[in-house]
Amino acid sequence: MKRYGFFGGSFNPPTKAHEELAKEIMKEFNLDKLFFVPVGNTYQKNGLIDEKDRYRMLNILFEEEEKIEVSDLELQTKQILKAIDVFSLIEEKYKHEEIFYIMGDDNLEKTPNWKSAEELLKNHKFIILKRNNKELKELIQNSNMLWKYKENFYESKMQKLIPYSSSQVRKAIQLGNTEEIEKMVNPKVYQYITERNLYQ
């Protein structure tokens, strides 16, 4: 049985922080493969560019990484998918592997409010990344539902990511701040953004 990690998000655009995260998580949890799962166009979020561009940028970012793949799972449907729907699709496709879902502790805190939250937490394993200043143990203790399934949470020892967010990149592009953009984005990804005049 192989160990696969899945990391969902908008990746609008993917940054050097995503690149760093992928490599560190692969090593820390001895994953055989890591999949990035970008949301599709049905995801409701302001400023979200087309799914095809985000998918291509992720592929450009990881084109030399044999053990990192970009999944088009959410791009194959015009339906609005909830987390439980995405998890079900992944479990069906990779049912013979050990699967871990990667999320930040900020999202974990919101999970009890999600649709089918109990089913999600009971039946799946999660790698938790530090995004805020709370201790994971404290966060879990403050929620009866999270505490109930605490054995399914695996805390990453990785400290907070390099502080580059997709929103910072978009803002820097709009301001024309090339120096800042180059700090935060892989050169090939930046070239793709420039050639297609994205985020203007």
Identify the notable features of this structure and list them briefly:
single chain; 200 residues; alpha/beta; Rossmann fold; NadD/NMNAT; pyridine nucleotide biosynthesis
Secondary-structure topology with pairs:
Layout: E1 3-9, H1 16-28, E2 33-38, H2 51-61, E3 68-70, H3 83-93, E4 98-104, H4 105-110, H5 117-123, E5 125-129, H6 136-141, H7 144-148, E6 153-155, H8 166-175, H9 178-184, H10 187-195
Parallel strand pairs: 1-2, 1-4, 2-3, 4-5, 5-6
Helix pairs in contact: 2-10
Summarize the structure in short.
It catalyses: nicotinate beta-D-ribonucleotide + ATP + H(+) = deamido-NAD(+) + diphosphate. The chain is an alpha/beta fold. The chain contains ten helices and six strands, in the order βαβαβαβααβααβααα.
Structural write-up:
- It is an enzyme of class 2 (transferase).
- GO terms for molecular function: ATP binding; nicotinate-nucleotide adenylyltransferase activity.
- Belongs to the NadD family.
- With 200 residues, this protein is an alpha/beta fold.
- It has a single domain, classed as Rossmann fold (3-Layer(aba) Sandwich).
- Helix content is 42%, strand content 16%.
- It has ten helices and six strands.
CATH topology, by name, is: Rossmann fold
Number of strands: 6
Residues in helix, %: 40-55%
What portion of residues belong to β-strands? 15-25%
By DSSP (H or I, 4+ residues per run), the number of helices equals 10
Number of domains: 1
Envelope shape? globular
Radius of gyration, taken over Cα atoms and rounded to an integer in Å: 17 Å
Q: Distance N terminus to C terminus?
A: 45 Å
Query: Which whole number gives the mean pLDDT?
Result: 93
The low-confidence runs, each spanning 5 or more residues with pLDDT under 50, are none
Reading the helices and strands in chain order gives EHEHEHEHHEHHEHHH
CATH architecture: 3-Layer(aba) Sandwich
Which structural class do you get from the secondary structure elements? alpha/beta
CATH class: Alpha Beta
CATH-assigned homologous superfamily: HUPs
Largest sheet: 6 strands, parallel
Order the strands across the largest sheet as they lie in space. Answer: 3-2-1-4-5-6
GO molecular function: ATP binding; nicotinate-nucleotide adenylyltransferase activity
Organism: Candidatus Merdicola faecigallinarum
GO biological process, one term: NAD+ biosynthetic process
Pfam family, one: CTP_transf_like
